[in-house]
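Progress against Task 2.4 (sequence-to-structure conversion) is shown through the following example record, which the project officer requested during the mid-term review.
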Amino acid sequence: MTMDDGDSLLFVYNADSGLFNTLADIGHKLFSPTTYPCQLCAITHGVLAERGAWRDFVASLDLPCEFLHRDQFQDRFPGNGTPLPAIFRLVAGEPKVCADADAIAACAGLDDLQVLIRLQCLGTTTPDPNSAVSEASSQQCRVGRY
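Structure tokens generated for the chain above:
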């Protein structure tokens, strides 16, 4: 599904699409997880599948969300050299970084990533009251704010 009209969130993984690349990523996560190049994927997915808590979080957002791999993003937005992974707010079809690779890398886990998205991509001034994330970890994830 492509979100070309209106506001939406675009999540871009620092990994390429395709079966071979998926298998290589699984191997990388299993045998050398500390050197895996996509912190967004490492936080939101286990070795084989998307984490249920992540899926629930995305479903709860008030904006449509789209997910692309690096090669798909480069095909759709040639010339955009934003370091990946990154989260963009699509405004009138144009990607605007709301969470850069450094901010994502600063997140210790899924709770931190959710706070980052709420604060920097959705403009929510306070974290979800149901979240167990501390103010300190919320601050840690705000590097790279635009």
